[in-house]
Amino acid sequence: MGPLARGGQPSTQMSERAPAEDFARVRKERDLFLSLLNLGDRDDLDSFLREALALIVDVTEAQQGYLELYDEFGAPPRWWIAHGFDERQVAEVRSKISSSIVAKALATGETIVTPSAMLDPEFNDQDSVRINKIQAVLCAPVGDAPSIGVLYLQGRVRPGLFDRHERELARLFARHLAPLAHRLITTEQSKQASDPTAEIRRRLDVARVIGTSQALANLLKQVSLAAPVNVGVLLTGECGTGKSQLAEVIHDNSPRATKPFVELNCAAIPENLLEAELFGALEGSFTGATRRLLGKVEAAEGGTLFLDEVAEIPLAAQAKLLHLLQKKTFYPLGAEEPSTADVRLIAASNVDLEEAVRQKKFREDLYFRLDVMKIRVPSLQERREDIRCLLRHFCNEACERHQLPALEVSPGALLAAETAAWPGHVRQLAHASEVAAIRAAGEGSPAIEAAHLFPEQAGSGSTTMTFQQATRAIQAGLLRDVLEQNDWNVIKTAEQLDLARSHVYNLMRTLNVKK
User: Fold this and answer.
1) Is 347 in contact with 236 (CB distance < 8 Å)?
2) What is the reported pTM?
3) 124 is in which domain, residue-wise?
């Protein structure tokens, strides 16, 4: 008989609650492993890790989670992902957070649970525990000994501890995660072996540059030459190709990396204010100057000044910019004495500066000062093999930024993106990916579909072939014709079409071109 309630009647509350709680736990466990099995179909390691970590954080009702994997036991983590941490906390997690707890889990092969690391005598003397005031912690090695990684969960959504059931779920999850992750790691390593950007990535900090195409590799080779030397760089290419990001990459890999990187879009500043924005101004130098204004040149002292859309600088300001480059001095508005400047200048333009010089819209002497090392940023059309990984990257970023549930990108969406025209290049793809993620999450869809990327096509109801559909049809027809001419020899077909062999295979799959 159960305990007595008030009035002497047996209480049924506990007996009714226990089966309900047991049922909820069994269902949660079932859903966890069904979801983990579905994740096994992923072909992208980053999205797999992101969704897997979000899944176990949700199931265990943790506040934050961190997952890292290694190439081999004892080596530094090669892949990592965090959930629920801000950027500062992520850096802390990777460098020092609760290393003693992680170390014990890896050394013993056991799942470590502590109700409060602050009160646990085994861990409370660790700096990371004291600094971060770590409370409930659950830490499980990924895979059987030797482990290939570690799962770290911290904090609770509701009051209480990680209980025995949640500990067992985390242990089983981490154990079954290992073979799935190992398959993707092997695939990732295989890709990297044939990745033309891999060698450059080992030498440069270019983690934010997404893609593995030959066009991107050629671009990064030029960056590797420009970054370490203190010369001017002129970036050319169409709007939206990523010139601003590339300028920052050059700065981050230069001897000036610890100093400021300052950006000014010359087209975004009214002509009458551009000089003050660039060189600064003394108090009273013009109407409205009620205090000393610091210019971008001064703000970039010791570092890099990036002038985007440099062709938009008026001729009067061009003369002052030329003086800066020649003499390393400049005059703030209203100043009679020059100020010295130690800045590296990187300029970018999406217009033909040589033509602007011929039309007397741009100073020839300034052009030659800027054009010491010219780097052309390729269009998205030239690096079409990168569209798939760019789309996945932007969608993951959007989910994190807007706190959306983790979303995969469907094969249909990948095909639609890869074969679509992107006149706005990487910038347009980034914006479309963000909106697609918001649409998919708003509908409760577990994946981003082609209709989320191109809703105008999905809802038009028109029988007229769209530009993207026509493009895909032309591509499929051309690819089939050339393959048949070459007796379905992919290497010869790739050479004839001037495409990477991997891209031909991707097109055959996405366009459903079969022998």
Assistant:
1) no
2) 0.61
3) 44-191
